[in-house]
């Protein structure tokens, strides 16, 4: 069955470009982004991996480890890495799983046979420090993902885990947020002493607490 939000991200051991990795051990209490791409030596994937490598400091600032995957072997990932560096201007700086036997792809339901029987789709899993799945995304092979959006969701998850707020449409870090409907006005006064903008009883906008 497909993984759902709140499920425990399955543990696995896999060969990667940085040696064998036991996923939960490697994660070691950090956040993680586990993402699959359909195939090595393909154009859209080349741009995705290069851009993700450019975001290294952004992921590190959020305590997020990144790990990629395709069903190509590690040796192919290693040969392809030099093309990525040459064309995208940044070397891949995170491990890439060579999932030739599809162990991880099957655990995470990354092969959608009605789209393609052989290759993984563009899956993304954001996994929290407790190893719970917090975001799933599935994109088709023809559409490169927006990794800035993945950072944006991580910002929202990290903020809303720590405060009784939710983030509105197109929110980015620093924008006003929404007081969660479950919080009464009385309790909200203690948490947001400077007050809020009550557009409706269920829509209370407030400055971001951090
Ligand atoms: C690509 O990364 O460019 C790609 C991969 C598989 C199918 C179509 C495009």
Summarize the helices and strands and which ones pair or pack.
Blueprint lengths: L12 E4 L2 E4 H5 L3 E6 L6 H12 L1 H6 L2 E7 L3 H15 L7 E3 L4 H5 L14 E6 L5 E7 L7 H16 L2 E2 L10 E3 L5 H7 L5 E4 L2 E4 L4
Parallel strand pairs: 3-4, 4-5
Antiparallel strand pairs: 1-2, 3-6, 6-7, 8-9, 9-11, 10-11
Helix pairs in contact: 2-4
3D structure, described in words:
This protein is 31% helix and 24% strand. By secondary structure, it is of the alpha+beta class. It folds into two domains: 13-144, Glutaredoxin (3-Layer(aba) Sandwich), CATH 3.40.30.10; 163-206, Antioxidant, Horf6, Chain A, domain 2 (2-Layer Sandwich). The strands form three sheets. Strands 5-4-3-6-7 form a five-stranded mixed sheet. Strands 8-9-11-10 form a four-stranded antiparallel sheet, with helices on one face. Strands 1-2 form a two-stranded antiparallel sheet. The structure holds benzoic acid (BEZ). Residues 38-39, 42-45, 141-142 line the site of benzoic acid.
> What structural class results from the helix and strand content?
alpha+beta
Amino- and carboxy-terminal Cα gap: 38 Å
Low-confidence stretches: none
CATH superfamily grouping of the largest domain: Glutaredoxin
Helix percent reads 25-40%
Strand arrangement within the widest β-sheet reads: 5-4-3-6-7
Instruction: Could you tell me the CATH topology label of the largest domain.
Output: Glutaredoxin
Number of distinct helices: 7
Strand content: 15-25%
Structural domains: how many: 2
Bound molecules: benzoic acid
Under CATH at level 1, the class of the largest domain stands as Alpha Beta
Mean residue pLDDT: 98
Biggest sheet descriptor = 5 strands, mixed
Shape: elongated
């Amino acid at each position: 069955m497909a993984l759902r939000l709140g499920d425990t991200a399955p543990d696995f051991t896999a060969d990667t470009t940085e040696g064998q990795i036991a996923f939960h051990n490697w994660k070691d209490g950090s956040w993680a982004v586990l993402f699959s791409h359909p195939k090595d030596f393909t154009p859209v994937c080349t741009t995705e991996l290069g851009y993700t490598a450019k975001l290294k400091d952004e992921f590190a600032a959020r305590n997020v480890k990144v790990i990629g995957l395709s069903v190509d072997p590690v040796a192919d990932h290693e040969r392809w890495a030099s093309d990525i560096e040459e064309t995208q201007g940044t070397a891949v700086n995170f491990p890439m799983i060579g999932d030739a036997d599809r162990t991880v792809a099957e655990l995470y339901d990354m092969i959608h046979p009605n789209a393609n029987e052989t290759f993984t789709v563009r899956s993304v899993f954001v996994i929290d420090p407790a190893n719970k799945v917090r975001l799933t995304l599935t994109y088709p092979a023809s559409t490169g993902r927006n990794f800035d959006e993945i950072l944006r969701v991580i910002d929202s998850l990290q903020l809303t885990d720590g405060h009784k707020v939710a983030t509105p449409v197109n929110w980015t870090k620093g924008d006003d947020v929404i007081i969660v409907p479950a919080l009464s006005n009385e309790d909200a006064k203690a948490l947001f002493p400077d007050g809020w903008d009550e557009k409706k009883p269920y829509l209370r906008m407030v400055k971001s607490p951090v």
